[in-house]
Amino acid sequence: xxxxxxxxxxxxxxxxxxxxxxxxxxxxxxxxxxxxxxxxxxxxxxxxxxxxxxxxxxxxxxxxxxxxxxxxxxxxxxxxxxxxxxxxxxxxxxxxxxxxxxxxxxxxxxxxxxxxxxxxxxxxxxxxxxxxxxxxxxxxxxxxxxxxxxxxxxxxxxxxxxxxxxxxxxxxxxxxxxxxxxxxxxxxxxxxxxxxxxxxxxxxxxxxxxxxxxxxxxxxxxxxxxxxxxxxxxxxxxxxxxxxxxxxxxxxxxxxxxxxxxxxxxxxxxxxxxxxxxxxxxxxxxxxxxxxxxxxxxxxxxxxxxxxxxxxxxxxxxxxxxxxxxxxxxxxxxxxxxxxxxxxxxxxxxxxxxxxxxxxxxxxxxxxxxxxxxxxxxxxxxxxxxxxxxxxxxxxxxxxxxxxxxxxxxxxxxxxxxxxxxxxxxxxxxxxxxxxxxxxxxxxxxxxxxxxxxxxxxxxxxxxxxxxxxxxxxxxxxxxxxxxxxxxxxxxxxxxxxxxxxxxxxxxxxxxxxxxxxxxxxxxxxxxxxxxxxxxxxxxxxxxxxxxxxxxxxxxxxxxxxxxxxxxxxxxxxxxxxxxxxxxxxxxxxxxxxxxxxxxxxxxxxxxxxxxxxxxxxxxxxxxxxxxxxxxxxxxxxxxxxxxxxxxxxxxxxxxxxxxxx
Length: 662
What we know:
By secondary structure, this protein is α+β, with helices and mostly antiparallel strands. The protein is built from 19 helices and 28 strands. Strands 12, 13, 14, 15, 16, 17, 18, 19 and 28 form a 9-stranded mixed β-sheet that branches. It has a 4-stranded mixed β-sheet with strand order 2-5-10-9. Strands 20-27-25-22 form a 4-stranded antiparallel β-sheet, with no helix packed on it. 19% of the residues are buried.
């Protein structure tokens, strides 16, 4: 097909000729016709553009035609190449793991990769071409920006997508104040694309590396156990120590797995909590301080490349100037210095061919070069070409160790932003369960974290809004699947309870009066101004028990088969209430047994408690906080002995009946 209209392109296009309204862009078939010497006025589409007879042969005055061509829109084209904009657009090659392009009626494109999902080693660096159409230039520019931002390419090499977005958003390009030297000036000024936060990039790279290493170790241990082999459980770890360099700053941090998908990052004594969830395409969805980031990581020859929300950042490995490596796969053409020859800093020592281009390799320090490869050899990315004997090793610049703090890790009684109250409770409970399973962080961070989690959990559990939030979430799940009348009544009750909570918040003096009741010598009778719900908790145990008994008796009158389990449980509770002595009486009796055991040292008192048929598990936890430390020790001893069962084994070795000594 052929498009007639104004045309923009980032790289020198193959155009026919300029005109007063833009350019005329022709596809390959017409280029071949022109290359074979066919005049422009003999091409059918050109004659149609100038409203001439398509089959005629009359000449056309292109400088002052009888009818000026009228463009039907504007097109902007962008080439997608495998070049690194941060390193002078050096070409590279490799595999393509994922390529997603969302075309539309105004944006289209094509991409060329080999059947194995990569770029050919000796092909051109361009592997994609995108076109954007609009009624005018600004519309075409906006369409192309949206398409490039939605374009996702995960590969072993860098691309120019981010740099193209930077060019399209440039003020000079938007106002059409560009010329042939505009792009050269931007490249000379080393204009960079937008980068993610440096600390966020370090966190993302460390979580990717730790996730991969911990999963590999776990897989090895599980494989050995599945094969019936004995393995060293010391290899099973939950922490990884990493060193990453970014912009000549070294970050030494430790990543500790604290749960199935939760991690702690320890940096210079501070601790930062993060969550990492595996995505289906190999990335990690990170949750950090209430914000989520879609991240991907790739290991390169000289470092790690991290993509955070379509923004690329490169982290370097510890640089060793004595090892001269190939930055890209290609062919070693020649060494510019002989074996054992001397090379100065920033001078060329070898040349390699990459993507039909010759790339010069320069030494970062001065010294003598020792060849490791022969010219003509195929080399991979990161493969050593030669070694360098430094003239002055003391001149090598080392990365500076980062000594600052990460960010406040333990805000006092702070709740996780973006989570509802019930989600906070579920999250903390899950973290505490993970800690019991062995996912712990080093001290003293673990003790501080545990205290903060327990305090937050207790504050959340005491919040009167917690049941309402949980019920609201349950109702959102079953709404429309239960009878309408039942749902309406439940929501009415929720509204009444919510109104009562608002009244309690508006009258805080009620809570102060309740605290007076709990003090020695306080009020004996609850004031009439207290709500009915709070009166329940200051009445005697007998009145409260009578109310419960009446409710339980009503439950036992249910006759439907679906309520059989409820009826049985109500009868069990009535039986327990009728036979179990009062709590104070049982508490005093158990306390007397503990005191007798301590004073006399006779273990029979403790054995009576251990072998008691009545349930005393509701009493023992209270003695863990007794004012007498000996009573606390006796309570712990009782719990251990009562929980452990003793077994008597009778082992006899019998000889076979045919044995002469039997």
